[in-house]
Specification:
With 124 residues, the protein is mostly helical. The chain has one domain. It is 85% helix and 0% strand. The chain has 6 helices and no strands. The protein is elongated.
């Protein structure tokens, strides 16, 4: 049995963990950047998910074009690099603007990992 396929499944599901945890930690993010957990601060913080979803739709279409021209394993590795860059950028964000910049970068990597994981499983 090829061990690469279960590895891809683990990479796929671990990449989507941050997407599910964002909603849980919205009050903490609002407290960190805005100093309160009132409804307005949480609503502004929730825009992170909206912004990253819009970016992921555009990148998903672009990834469809790129996957025809480039190696799938390289795109998977590039997705992993984007996830690491996005997470590190969110961790070290000094203000909410940088958080808004780096959170969609993580989502781009997550979309690339998801698409390339299914593509590579289909190949094997």
């Amino acid at each position: 049995m090829n061990l690469f396929v279960p590895f891809l499944g683990a990479v796929f599901f671990s990449a989507y963990i941050i997407e599910s945890l964002t909603g849980i930690f919205l009050p903490d993010i609002a407290t960190t950047f805005f100093g309160s957990t009132n409804r307005i601060s949480i609503a502004i913080t929730a825009q992170l998910s909206t912004l990253s979803s819009v970016v992921s739709v555009f990148f998903g279409v672009l990834l469809g074009v790129l996957s025809v021209s480039y190696n799938h394993k390289r795109l998977l590795i590039l997705g992993n690099i984007y996830v690491v860059l996005g997470i590190m950028g969110c961790f070290f964000a000094q203000n909410f603007l940088f958080m808004q910049i780096f959170f969609p970068i993580e989502r781009i990597g997550t979309v690339a990992i998801g698409a390339m994981a299914f593509t590579l499983v289909g190949e094997y």
